[in-house]
Amino acid sequence: MFTFEPGSLEIPNSDKSFDCVVINGIKDVLSSCYLNKYSGKYTLNVVPTEVFDSLLKHSFAELGEFLDSFIFRVTDWEYPCDVDFVCRSFIGMAAGSVYIKIGLESEDWKRPFTINEFAKALAAVLELKASDKTKYQQDDNFVSNGCGVVWSFDPGERLDGIYDDLVAEFTEILKATHYNLLKLDAHSLWSYFRFPDKVKVACTQYLIYFAQFLADLGISAGVEVTGNHAGAVLFKVVPEDRETSLQLVKEALEAYLNAASEDFSDMESGTRDIAVMQLQSNVMHLQSQLMLAKSSMQMKDATIETLQLSNYQYKQILEQKDKEEDVIPGIVTVGKFESNGISVNLGELLKRLKRRFL
């Protein structure tokens, strides 16, 4: 059974809004609500996670006895989002709807595509889904005020029976949107990475060194590494020569990331090429930082892979491979049955590296 009533720490902010609520007999001083004078029901803004979890144990219909809707703000997804559960039909939303509204704050926008391009790509993905239960939603003519995805459910459904699947589907929709946006810039490679705070600086620095690694392989390219408001790192590589294959750059990046887990401590001391020496130095510095963080993070292996490196674009390419083939002959092999799909011949890679002086 669900019970709800508005409350106030002192005096209501107005005759319609209240700065705390009482849910199932328990006062919540962090959440707030607003009374709709037309329906006589409330819109609830939920703050504590435990209160949100308790609401999920009820159906839309149960909650609709007191609420028009309730909104929970999520800040640890790739974009900050407001998840709006519509318990009673109002403002063009049917009872049983869930609207995930994506925050598109222009002042914090640090992505290789515009807000309008993102919104159009999102709408196109949802149009292709051609589902009666899922649609694109934009609040008004200004997309920067927010857009997102609306799902339709039976009002009698319990929310905890749909929420996890809904979040998983939303994640896949965002991935498809980003994948389509990659086509906007056919001459650069960009990816998102997520690192734990304790090693974010070291891992970001390692990504910056990738430009020199490419140069030592004979590929001239610029590298940009920037953070964004969702805590991810945006990594962009732009080859100077537009004829340079991005596939080659992608595979060079995979070789570079895999090199970070190799043991360079036993490398022959007679190696004098500055390119090899710098790669060794960069890898060993990164490994030392990961080892320092290992105990506090309780990581099983201090490698880039265990830092949950997120590179959706590259994973898409690997999933399309049906058989083993050399993508950088003699150095990187992509194989269907390889661990993580990649094997790297470190010895051959080191032989190919050579610092070129102009």
Report what the structure shows.
- A hairpin with a 6-residue loop joins strand 7 and strand 8.
- 32% of the residues lie in helices and 23% in strands.
- The chain has 358 residues and is α+β, with helices and mostly antiparallel strands.
- The strands form four sheets. An eight-stranded mixed sheet has the order 2-5-6-7-8-9-11-10. The chain has a three-stranded antiparallel sheet with strand order 1-3-4, with no helix packed on it. Strands 12-14-13 form a three-stranded antiparallel sheet.
- The chain folds into two domains: 4-182, no CATH class; 187-352, no CATH class.
- The protein has helices at residues 49-55, 60-63, 115-129, 163-181, 200-208, 210-216, 246-259, 274-297, 312-319, 346-352, and strands at residues 4-7, 17-18, 20-23, 26-28, 32-35, 42-46, 67-74, 81-86, 97-102, 134-138, 147-152, 189-193, 221-227, 233-239, 325-328, 332-334, 342-344.
Question: Short description, anyone?
Answer:
With 358 residues, this protein is an alpha+beta fold. 32% of the residues lie in helices and 23% in strands. Residues 10-14 and 300-342 have low confidence and may be disordered.
Tally the structural domains.
2
Mean pLDDT: 77
Strand order of the largest sheet: 2-5-6-7-8-9-11-10
Which oligomeric state applies?
Answer: single chain
Tell me the structural class.
Answer: alpha+beta
Beta-strand content estimate = 15-25%
| Unreliable segments of 5+ consecutive residues | 10-14, 300-342
How many helices in DSSP terms?
10
For the biggest sheet, the summary is:
8 strands, mixed
Which value, in Å, is the CA radius of gyration?
A: 25 Å
- Portion of residues in helices? 25-40%
> What form results from the Cα inertia axes?
elongated
Number of strands: 17
Distance between the termini: 76 Å
Series of secondary-structure elements, N-terminal to C-terminal: EEEEEEHHEEEHEEHEHHEEHHHEEEH
